[in-house]
Amino acid sequence: MAPLHLIALIAALLSAGLMAGLFTGYSYSVMPGLKILDDRAWIAALQHINRVIINGRFMTAFLGSVVFALAAVILGCFLDDKSALPWTIAGLVCNLVMFIGTMAKNVPLNDRLEAAGDPAAIEDPAALRGDVEEPWIKWNHVRGIASLLGLAALAWALYTTGLNA
User: Is residue 136 a contact partner of residue 106, using CB atoms and an 8 Å limit?
Assistant: First the structure.
């Protein structure tokens, strides 16, 4: 059981790290970089990014951050030494905040941008951008912070596991 727990914990840590890097990268570079675009170009850029991000690499890390953390929690319940379990649970909770925030907040905003259609044909692109940009960025910060905290908790869980091996 211990080797499977270790594998699940490492996979959860790597997945959380990928998500933390992605979402914080959006916070400190992508969205500030896109801010200079006019409204139609901003909408077009977000639409394109939202289409290409749904791929196997993203989905593996995105879903893996929750699935692998859950597996590590379940497997950790069967270990004699449960000292890493609270940190693993904390990592899972943070990854769930990231996952649920993405699905409940960012994805509907992405869908709204996509449903608007061709940016050149949008009657009031400034209004659409005004409705989407601020909440999207706010929730991206939330999921970035949640991912970073999840990464830290899982790293500490792995460290604790190594101390007691």
Answer: yes
Helices (H) and strands (E) in the chain, counts: 7, 0
Residue type, 78: F
Phi, psi of 123 (to 5 degrees): -65, -45
What is the pTM for the complete model shown? 0.93
Rounded Cα distance between 85 and 82, Å, is 5
Give the separation between CA 31 and CA 25, rounded to whole angstroms: 9
Chain-centroid distance of CA 66 in Å reads 10
Helix/strand/coil percent split, the chain, to 5: 85, 0, 15
Q: Which long-range contacts (CB under 8 A, 24 or more apart) does 105-109 make?
A: 105/135, 105/136, 105/139, 105/142, 106/136, 106/139, 106/140, 106/143, 109/135, 109/136, 109/139
Q: Which of the 8 DSSP states describes residue 121? A: G
Dihedral of alpha carbons 123, 42, 119, 114, sign: negative
- pLDDT per position as a tens digit, 96-129: 999 999 999 999 999 999 999 999 999 999 999 9
